[in-house]
Write a structure and sequence with these properties.
MetI-like fold; 14 helices; mainly alpha; single chain; globular; 284 residues
Length: 284
């Protein structure tokens, strides 16, 4: 095991630098979260203090009430984000897994070139496509609609899904699919009954990454949605700060409320996700 070898050998200066880097990286991630969490319980006007004078446990209730008063109800934000994220992730999962299986197990002319095009699409910024997507949505009547936001989410999530699935499918021995075909299974039956059941780590990895990406997506939602009742979580949060005075302690409470689904999804799929990031995931 690489981890055991790392700690069993003599602790060198190089390993010390690695550990120091990981500790600093962890601190840089955790400290802002802890500060934001503490801010959500602070009294008004105590944002810049290191140690708060007293805690306001009703900030979350006040944040929900204030959001309702300003026509950005948290329940509606949740609904819009859940609908767009759930359907976009689900459809992307299906299409990308099928495409990745074709790239990995079905050799056809031009497959490598097409796959490289898919990889190139991963590094192209979404801002480049904003105007074409807006014009397309306008003339097809998809502006201010769930489907008008779901379709771009699917398109931009495909590359990542295919990349992760193909990397996992390439590790699956050919003997498994060949044995299924000998038993009379079709290509789709092999994919559905043999490949998918052992691909839970890859599925979990794709779900977590796409859920995080689509739930926090801001640019497309801002451009394609202009009706308040359709705002997703990031757009509604930006309006809190941009249009009105919004107390920072209540804003912090709102941020943590809207981050709950992300934490739930991660805790559900964390075990398979960790397997997907380690070697020998198929055997596990």
């Amino acid at each position: 095991m690489p981890g055991k070898k790392f700690f069993s050998n003599k602790f060198t200066f190089g390993k010390f630098l690695v550990v120091l880097y990981l500790i600093c990286f962890l601190v840089l991630i955790i400290l802002p979260l802890l500060w934001m969490f503490s801010l959500s319980f602070r009294a008004p006007g105590t944002m810049n203090t290191i140690i708060p004078n007293g805690l306001q446990f009703d900030n979350y209730q006040r944040a929900i009430k204030l959001a309702d008063e300003r026509d950005y109800p948290i329940s509606q934000m949740y609904k819009n984000s859940i609908i767009t994220t759930f359907f976009s992730v689900g459809i992307t999962l299906i299409i990308s897994s099928l495409a990745a299986y074709a790239f990995s197990k079905l050799k056809f002319k031009g497959s490598k070139a097409i796959f490289y095009l898919v990889l190139i699409a991963m590094v192209i910024p979404v801002q480049i496509f904003l105007i074409p997507i807006f014009i397309f949505s306008k003339y097809t009547g998809l502006l201010n609609s769930y489907i008008g936001l779901i379709l771009p989410y699917i398109a931009f999530g495909m590359s990542l899904g295919i990349f992760i699935f193909k990397g996992f499918f390439d590790q699956i021995p050919k003997e498994l699919s060949e044995a299924a075909k000998i038993d009379g299974a079709s290509e789709f039956q092999t994919f559905l009954r043999i490949i998918l059941p052992i691909s839970k780590p890859a599925i979990s990895t794709v779900i977590i990454f796409l859920f995080l990406q689509n739930w926090n997506e801001f640019i497309l939602a801002l451009v394609l949605l202009s009706k308040t009742n359709l705002y997703t979580v990031p757009v509604a949060l930006s309006k809190f700060v941009g249009e009105f005075y919004f107390p920072w302690e209540l804003y912090a409470a709102t941020v943590f409320l809207t981050a709950i689904p992300i934490m739930i999804v991660f805790f559900i799929f964390q075990n398979w996700f960790i397997k997907g990031l380690t070697a020998g995931a198929i055997k596990g």
